């Protein structure tokens, strides 16, 4: 039998404060965590949701160095953007703090010192790369070199982003410091390690035997790590940005960010509840749930529990419902390539549509496997589900009540068999929703909530009160009463998922928020209660809106391709005399048209200063309206031997440049010149 808890502590992965948050973060962590927290609050349970920015680590120092500012300036900027975005999006944190806070530094230092005093660390000395010019040890990301697997010359000390292979700095060929550009040297350094191998036995029993209910992707990854055998993991590193290691012989060393960051959950709880924080972290009747993405599974299921167990007084997580990754338009979301839908930009470009994104990200959540976000699917789910099902039913129920009963809840008569069948369906859906929400299956729970709206739509369509109004208004009153009760139920059912729309719906029916226990009741709205003015819950999203977003991504892709472009190596040298043999001239295009039955060829008729000549060029794909070239000037090689192509004699070669994306662009003089002049 599952343990009964008095309260629930929800933590959410701390986003790095070196950039804004995007839809991948939302789908993986923050929307599911918020759904769960709102659901528990509706049930009247004691719950807190803890979040904050992770403001230490190498990515932040790299960002600061690249921008020529301090790490503190970087985290101040992005912490503000992230916090404001979460607030506007309705992520209902009880606190959203940061790991640069004084209370966090103190908490992390104390935690390290407790483990150190208990002898829970081991000390190891090893050789690491050191930049003699910068006089500092180099983190993996501060070392670049040639990948030994694919030859990429800009591989990092931890990974080659060209072939995706995980690396160590010692794997790189011809390593260079990203700080000074010099060749680093190996130098001895001492660090403290958490011996995870010491914790392997109890972790194996705790996870593999006692938590078989964990999601398959989480359980499977933990089993894989445990089966490979755990190794000691460094808890400190040589860096000047982070929580200083609180030991006299640790000058210039900080706590490794993976050790420091999860302690942020504790320090943020202390900041929120300075007098009662311990009951949330040390009382076995507290249920702790970590919401994270799959890249953090090992830290929250193996490493952080080992830290808590080693300290000795903390509870362990009851569940870690990690999600997989969300891709974008068939490609992996990448902050470095700007291939993302950023939350702060979405909020600006789609004002008032927070719930549309919440709905789409939940309906397409990567709960058990990677999923793909596309703007066409975003549009389709809004128009075909939110507008056509949920919004349509609510609007019809309220508008018909206004039309037939002056906006007041009519008295119901006796329910017939179909009415009762509709009510029974609601009760069954409520039980299923609770089961799904309790087991972190939010995508399926949302589907059940939308099924409630479908039930309402079908009920109205089958009953056709607009026809009965001509003959039986008492029956119409019963139909509309039941429809309004369904509407009120929808405000409860969608509250965890679509809080802004639920609030708007409550305003329209003129009632305050109900508790979850009221879901399934068909006496929520009393006879004679006056409804407020009905407005549309959702509105259609037109093609041009999503096409603009798709074009925005295409522009990003083109910019990335241009930035990544690397010119081909220069060909072998040729004698100047050989070059002078080519007769390159300028001529005016007199006519230009596609060659019949040849997709690639354009036929140019050119005035070359002596006569007219015909030249065929394989650039039709890039000039779909060739007649627009008439009257322009082009550069061509005049002394190529004529060659027959598709039955046409071509007398030369038009000069084009191939862009980074493979597009061919005509070489043309910037100003008009005399036909036949030579290019020198």
UniProtKB/TrEMBL annotation:
<dbReference type="Pfam" id="PF01588">
    <property type="entry name" value="tRNA_bind"/>
</dbReference>
<keyword id="KW-0547">Nucleotide-binding</keyword>
<comment type="function">
    <text>Is required not only for elongation of protein synthesis but also for the initiation of all mRNA translation through initiator tRNA(fMet) aminoacylation.</text>
</comment>
<feature type="binding site">
    <location>
        <position position="160"/>
    </location>
    <ligand>
        <name>Zn(2+)</name>
    </ligand>
</feature>
<dbReference type="InterPro" id="IPR014758">
    <property type="entry name" value="Met-tRNA_synth"/>
</dbReference>
<dbReference type="Pfam" id="PF19303">
    <property type="entry name" value="Anticodon_3"/>
</dbReference>
<feature type="binding site">
    <location>
        <position position="147"/>
    </location>
    <ligand>
        <name>Zn(2+)</name>
    </ligand>
</feature>
<keyword id="KW-0820">tRNA-binding</keyword>
<dbReference type="InterPro" id="IPR023458">
    <property type="entry name" value="Met-tRNA_ligase_1"/>
</dbReference>
<keyword id="KW-0862">Zinc</keyword>
<dbReference type="InterPro" id="IPR001412">
    <property type="entry name" value="aa-tRNA-synth_I_CS"/>
</dbReference>
<dbReference type="GO" id="GO:0005524">
    <property type="term" value="F:ATP binding"/>
</dbReference>
<comment type="subunit">
    <text>Homodimer.</text>
</comment>
<dbReference type="Pfam" id="PF09334">
    <property type="entry name" value="tRNA-synt_1g"/>
</dbReference>
<keyword id="KW-0436">Ligase</keyword>
<dbReference type="GO" id="GO:0006431">
    <property type="term" value="P:methionyl-tRNA aminoacylation"/>
</dbReference>
<dbReference type="InterPro" id="IPR015413">
    <property type="entry name" value="Methionyl/Leucyl_tRNA_Synth"/>
</dbReference>
<keyword id="KW-0694">RNA-binding</keyword>
<feature type="binding site">
    <location>
        <position position="163"/>
    </location>
    <ligand>
        <name>Zn(2+)</name>
    </ligand>
</feature>
<keyword id="KW-0067">ATP-binding</keyword>
<dbReference type="InterPro" id="IPR012340">
    <property type="entry name" value="NA-bd_OB-fold"/>
</dbReference>
<dbReference type="InterPro" id="IPR002547">
    <property type="entry name" value="tRNA-bd_dom"/>
</dbReference>
<dbReference type="GO" id="GO:0046872">
    <property type="term" value="F:metal ion binding"/>
</dbReference>
<dbReference type="GO" id="GO:0000049">
    <property type="term" value="F:tRNA binding"/>
</dbReference>
<dbReference type="GO" id="GO:0005829">
    <property type="term" value="C:cytosol"/>
</dbReference>
<feature type="binding site">
    <location>
        <position position="150"/>
    </location>
    <ligand>
        <name>Zn(2+)</name>
    </ligand>
</feature>
<feature type="domain" description="TRNA-binding">
    <location>
        <begin position="578"/>
        <end position="680"/>
    </location>
</feature>
<keyword id="KW-0963">Cytoplasm</keyword>
<protein>
    <recommendedName>
        <fullName>Methionine--tRNA ligase</fullName>
        <ecNumber>6.1.1.10</ecNumber>
    </recommendedName>
</protein>
<dbReference type="InterPro" id="IPR029038">
    <property type="entry name" value="MetRS_Zn"/>
</dbReference>
<keyword id="KW-0030">Aminoacyl-tRNA synthetase</keyword>
<dbReference type="GO" id="GO:0004825">
    <property type="term" value="F:methionine-tRNA ligase activity"/>
</dbReference>
<comment type="similarity">
    <text>Belongs to the class-I aminoacyl-tRNA synthetase family. MetG type 1 subfamily.</text>
</comment>
<feature type="short sequence motif" description="'KMSKS' region">
    <location>
        <begin position="332"/>
        <end position="336"/>
    </location>
</feature>
<dbReference type="InterPro" id="IPR033911">
    <property type="entry name" value="MetRS_core"/>
</dbReference>
<dbReference type="InterPro" id="IPR009080">
    <property type="entry name" value="tRNAsynth_Ia_anticodon-bd"/>
</dbReference>
<dbReference type="InterPro" id="IPR014729">
    <property type="entry name" value="Rossmann-like_a/b/a_fold"/>
</dbReference>
<feature type="binding site">
    <location>
        <position position="335"/>
    </location>
    <ligand>
        <name>ATP</name>
    </ligand>
</feature>
<dbReference type="InterPro" id="IPR041872">
    <property type="entry name" value="Anticodon_Met"/>
</dbReference>
<keyword id="KW-0648">Protein biosynthesis</keyword>
<keyword id="KW-0479">Metal-binding</keyword>
<dbReference type="InterPro" id="IPR004495">
    <property type="entry name" value="Met-tRNA-synth_bsu_C"/>
</dbReference>
């Amino acid at each position: 039998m599952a343990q009964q808890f008095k309260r629930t502590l929800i933590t959410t992965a701390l986003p790095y404060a070196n950039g804004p948050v995007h839809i991948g973060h939302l789908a993986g962590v923050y929307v599911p965590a918020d759904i769960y927290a709102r659901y528990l609050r509706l049930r009247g349970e004691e719950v807190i949701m803890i979040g904050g920015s992770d403001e230490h680590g190498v990515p932040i120092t790299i960002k600061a160095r690249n921008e020529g500012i301090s790490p503190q300036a970087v985290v101040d900027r992005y912490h503000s953007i992230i916090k404001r975005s979460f607030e506007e999006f309705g992520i209902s944190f009880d606190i959203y703090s940061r790991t640069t806070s004084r209370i966090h530094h103190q908490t992390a230092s104390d935690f390290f010192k407790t483990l150190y005093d208990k002898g829970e660390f081991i000390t190891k000395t090893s050789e690491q790369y050191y930049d003699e010019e910068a006089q500092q040890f180099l983190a993996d990301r501060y070392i670049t070199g040639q990948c030994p697997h694919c030859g990429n010359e800009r591989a990092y000390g931890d990974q080659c982003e060209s072939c995706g292979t995980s690396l160590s700095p010692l794997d790189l060929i011809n390593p260079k410091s990203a700080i000074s550009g010099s060749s680093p040297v190996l130098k001895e350094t001492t660090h403290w390690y958490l011996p995870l191998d010491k914790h392997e036995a109890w972790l194996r029993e705790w996870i593999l035997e006692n938590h078989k209910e964990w999601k398959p992707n989480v359980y499977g990854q933990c089993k894989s790590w445990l089966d490979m055998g755990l190794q000691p993991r460094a808890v400190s590193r040589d860096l000047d940005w982070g929580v200083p290691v609180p030991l006299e012989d640790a000058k210039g060393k900080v706590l490794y960010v993976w050790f420091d960051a999860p302690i942020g959950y504790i320090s943020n709880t202390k900041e929120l509840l300075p007098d009662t924080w311990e009951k949330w972290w040390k009382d076995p009747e507290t249920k702790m749930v970590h919401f994270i993405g799959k890249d953090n599974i090992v830290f929250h299921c193996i490493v952080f529990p080992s830290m808590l167990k080693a300290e000795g007084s903390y509870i362990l997580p009851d569940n870690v419902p990690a999600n997989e990754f969300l891709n974008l338009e068939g490609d992996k979301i990448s902050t470095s390539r700007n291939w993302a839908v950023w939350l702060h930009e979405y909020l600006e470009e789609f004002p008032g549509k927070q719930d549309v994104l919440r709905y789409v990200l939940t309906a397409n959540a990567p709960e058990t496997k990677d999923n793909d976000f596309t703007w066409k699917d975003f549009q389709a789910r809004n128009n075909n589900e939110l507008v056509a099902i949920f919004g349509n039913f609510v609007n019809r129920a309220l508008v018909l009540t206004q039309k037939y009963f002056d906006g007041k809840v009519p008295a119901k008569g006796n329910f017939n068999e179909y009415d009762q069948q509709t009510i029974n369906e609601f009760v069954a859906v409520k039980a299923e929703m609770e089961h799904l929400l309790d087991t972190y299956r939010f995508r399926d729970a949302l589907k059940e909530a939308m099924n409630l709206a479908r039930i309402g739509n079908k009920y109205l369509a089958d009953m056709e009160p607009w026809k009965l109004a001509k003959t039986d208004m008492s029956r119409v009153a019963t139909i509309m009463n039941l429809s309004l009760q369904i509407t009120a139920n929808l405000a409860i059912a969608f509250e965890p998922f679509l809080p802004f729309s639920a609030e708007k719906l409550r305003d329209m029916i003129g009632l305050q928020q109900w508790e979850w226990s009221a879901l399934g009741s068909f006496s929520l709205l009393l006879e004679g209660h006056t409804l407020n003015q009905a407005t549309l819950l959702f509105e259609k999203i037109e093609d041009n809106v999503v096409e603009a977003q798709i074009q925005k991504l295409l522009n990003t892709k083109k910019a990335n391709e241009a930035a990544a472009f690397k010119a081909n190596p220069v060909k072998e040298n040729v004698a100047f005399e050989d070059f002078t043999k080519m007769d390159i001239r300028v001529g005016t295009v007199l006519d230009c048209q596609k060659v019949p039955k040849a997709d690639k060829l354009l036929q140019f008729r050119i005035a070359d200063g002596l006569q007219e000549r015909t030249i065929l060029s394989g650039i039709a794909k890039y000039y779909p309206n060739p007649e627009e070239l008439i009257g322009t000037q082009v550069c061509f090689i005049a002394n190529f031997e004529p060659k027959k192509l598709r039955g046409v004699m071509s007398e030369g070669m038009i000069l084009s440049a191939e862009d980074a994306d493979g597009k061919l662009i005509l070489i043309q003089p910037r100003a008009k010149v005399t036909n036949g002049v030579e290019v020198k």
